[in-house]
Amino acid sequence: MTSSTQSEILPSACPHDCPSTCALEIERLGPQQIGRVRGAADNSYTAGVICAKVARYTERTHHPDRLMHPMRRVGEKGSGEWQRISWDDALDEVAEAFLKREAEYGSETIWPYYYAGTMGLVQRDGINRLRHVKKYSRQHSTICTTLAWTGWNVGTGSLHGTDPREMAKSDLVVIWGTNAVHTQINVMTHATRARKERGAKIVVIDPYRNATAIAADMHLCVRPGTDGALACAVMHILFAENMADRAYIAKYTKGAAELEEHLKTRTPEWAADITGLSVEEIYEFARLYGQTKKSFLRLGYGFSRSRNGSVNMHAASCLAAVTGAWQHEGGGAFHNNGAIYHWNKTLIEGLDAVDPNIRVLDMSRIGPVLTGDKRDLGDGPPITGLFIQNMNPMDVAPDLTKVHAGFARDDLFVCVHEQFMTETAKMADILLPATTFVEHDDFYQGGGQNHIMMGGKIIEPLGECRSNHEVICGLAKRLGANHRGFEMTEMEIIDDTLKISGWPDAASLTASKWHDCQIPYEEAHYLNGFGHADKKFHFTPDWSRMGPNFDGMPSLPDHWEVIDQTDAEHPFRMVTAPARNFLNSSFTATPTSLKKEKRPTVKIHGSDAARLGTEDGAIVRLGNRQGSLLIHVEIFDGVQPGTVISEGVWPGKHFIEKVGINILISAEAAKPNGGAVFHDTAVWIRPESAPSE
């Protein structure tokens, strides 16, 4: 594709499911062609640095396999037999199918299903406006953040923390439970600046020696699901060696006396047995942390994706309150800045049309939902209609055996709005082509930083692609759904939402490219008090306020032994970690990402491989009570024996038996409020074949 028009550089923001939400500069080569994609150097958080996969976004936008036209399935489900149809016919058929099912079963039989294929507030969340107006089944969006946010909020009372740019002013940056090099590169930008300018140390706590751990000064290679034990042992040492700030604790915290008494038995020896770390490693880290006033905890999502994930997050967050690190610039803790944006999303999501009597279905349990589990459906009807945007559950959701069985139902009508022929798209009855972020208007918030950013349309949509907003409005008209949001353009919704939320209007945000929403220093550091009514940080968490399923949860920071334990039949613990060149199942279609990631593998410690009788490049069968799959071995001594790692949400078609790694992941809802347990899986491994030539 060529153009004779002169190129220009336009601002935007990365739409993908990453806390960095990078400010971008995109080269526009013509009405329907982009060129280079770069980080915005003048944005104080992005600082000109973006990940390689987004820098290659031209490859994704102009990929020859982009879906370009609406299609109707004409063969068996999943057969790949399609007939091109018009947009009017496609939307008419979806509306007819949904109205027919509503008439038979009631409105709750339809389930709009979505997540974060785009993080734009209009294109991601507008599906809820259709849901609420039509009284379709609601969605509990648990697949990513629920466990982490619950664990953070139960201690601090508010989803915010130290300005993440203050990492550059820290003397110690602890990157806990996130492979920032793979998943949020700007954390490394600011941490390495602190190292260069201040001599700061970087500590990484993670179950394997990943790219972030390699860049660190210290790596604590814990067993999966044992972070709470490490946190408790560190606090034991902080109290025992007089590194706890008792004046700060007395002023700002609740439950300190109970905590200190509880920690007397949570010794480094106790934690070493649980975590697999040495006693010396635990002491070294605790003393480094306790003796460094400007210590910054950058707490990620990875270590929360476990049955004890909320407990682990709370335990780790307690460290900054024990030392009083919150008092210092470059000190404290940070997980997510969601609370600083105070959005009024009534217009975007149709919150004025919510009926609280409509059932709520847990998105992480889509497999049990679609296979008729009454624990999920209650007394309501089966799901007989799915409308899917921004999500690929046939690869990404837990318990793929049930997910695949549910999608194969003859009575289930599925409409998928997608950019590529994903495993989920293959199961659609009607398949609609979607725009990428450079082909529509939207705006974004930085969960891992502090800006709202405009992402205006850069090029005209390719083929017949339409935005999420356009499709939702088109369906609403045919379904008889009335709401003023369906009559507005994306930019009109953006403008209205910005103004009613107390931010500059759309024209101002477009002119400035972004707006820094960072709250004052005293608020960010909780120096005016924490977010609970008593203004205290809570060492004694009240889990009953965080979700309905809180029975048995510990009343103090601890190692909570509810994880999927190893046993004689399942001697290994598996973590399904993010790949560097994929983002969940995004970028799995682009040639460069596929070339760099090569193929699905399981990383196994050399001593474990020797005992199993397998070797590098060989094929093993990996399994548990959920199912099993064949996968190639990668010998890797950057894990503890007994821990195995599989990186990336590879599409099923790349596996030997055409089913992905999440066949092994349970759909059990973690306490207290749900959440997917992707990193909490016990498995067995059996050799299948030697390496091929």
From TrEMBL:
Record carries keyword Iron-sulfur: yes
Residue ranges annotated for the 4Fe-4S Mo/W bis-MGD-type domain, each copy included: 7-65
Cofactor: Mo-bis(molybdopterin guanine dinucleotide)
The keyword Oxidoreductase belongs to this UniProt entry's keyword annotation: yes
Transmembrane spans: none
SMART domains: Molybdop_Fe4S4
Family, similarity comment: Belongs to the prokaryotic molybdopterin-containing oxidoreductase family.
Name this protein carries in UniProt: Molybdopterin oxidoreductase family protein
Organism whose genome encodes this protein: Sneathiella sedimenti
Organism phylogeny: Bacteria, Pseudomonadati, Pseudomonadota, Alphaproteobacteria, Sneathiellales
